[in-house]
Design a protein that fits this description.
The protein is an alpha/beta fold and about 240 residues long. It is about 40% helix and about 25% strand. Strand 4, helix 8 and strand 5 (about 165-175) form a beta-alpha-beta unit. The structure holds S-adenosylmethionine.
Length: about 240
């Protein structure tokens, strides 16, 4: 169960709000998450206050920094149990969300949540490196978002191919990501992106977080993303 008072307090502090029906959907999602987690490991975070802050507020905070137009097409790369994508979708069912993960069981969980709430979404079981070479998904999204998936260099190779020219790749990181952000700049440029904003903020007191917004300036060269073994062996420099 979410801590409603705490969630509304955090959102208000950041100038955000949430209507009642959106809260109810998010609260049901958190109940299903904690219940399912008893038999299938989806998250290490299960205390109501922690779930509220570290999963739900941390996903909703994207609305402060990113303006998602009505019906925006978003891919959540390495969504796991649905963060941030399922929180965004349940609070804004107008969004066209694609959930991508290489673990089928996690996607089964997401499907069961979207089915039970009557919201529609695309579920994509694939490795990002493979889906990024598929014409159906390449350069097709207004936004690609990823939280806690990989270092920014590899993540850029996973995510930027999905984003259309003019779209944005949203990387959600811990505050200490300075070095990896610097190290990723050449790769980002090579893949057709440009770091537009590197936002450091306190989600709550003593919980600094970082959101990096990378704009897609030109098409990603066709050889990227490379197969996973190549990315692992030869990260872009
Ligand atoms: N984004 C979620 C969150 O913040 O709670 C999940 C993070 S979890 C640590 C990383 C997820 O990314 C896992 O579900 C894993 O299966 C997925 N993943 C890692 N590498 C991937 C890849 N190359 N393609 C697709 N999914 C990947």
């Amino acid at each position: 169960m979410l801590d409603r008072t705490l969630l509304y307090e955090i959102l208000a502090k950041h100038g955000l709000s949430l209507d009642d029906s959106a809260f109810k959907r998010l609260d049901s999602f958190s109940d299903i998450l904690v219940k399912t987690n008893e038999s299938f490991n989806l998250t290490a975070i299960t205390e109501p206050k922690d779930v509220t802050v570290k999963h739900f507020a941390d996903s909703l905070i994207l609305y402060k920094y990113v303006d998602f137009p009505k019906g925006a097409k978003i891919i959540d790369v390495g969504t796991g149990a649905g963060f941030p994508g399922l929180v965004l979708l349940l609070s804004r069912p107008d969004l066209k969300m694609t959930f991508l993960d290489s673990t089928r069981k996690k996607l089964g969980f997401i499907q069961s949540v979207t089915d039970s709430m009557g919201v529609s979404a695309e579920i994509l079981h694939a490795r990002a490196e493979d889906a990024g070479q598929n014409r159906e998904y390449r350069e097709r999204f207004d936004f690609a978002a990823a939280r806690a998936v990989s270092n920014l260099t590899d993540l850029s190779e996973y995510c930027l191919p999905f984003v259309r020219k003019g779209g944005v790749f949203i990387s959600m990181k811990s505050a200490e990501a300075e070095d990896e952000i610097k190290a990723a700049q050449k790769a980002i440029k090579l893949l057709g992106g440009e770091t537009e904003k590197d936002i450091l903020f306190d989600l709550v007191e003593e919980m600094p977080r970082r959101i990096i917004l990378i704009k897609k300036k030109s098409q990603t060269p066709t050889q990227y993303p490379r197969p996973s073994a190549k990315i692992a062996k030869n990260p872009l420099k």
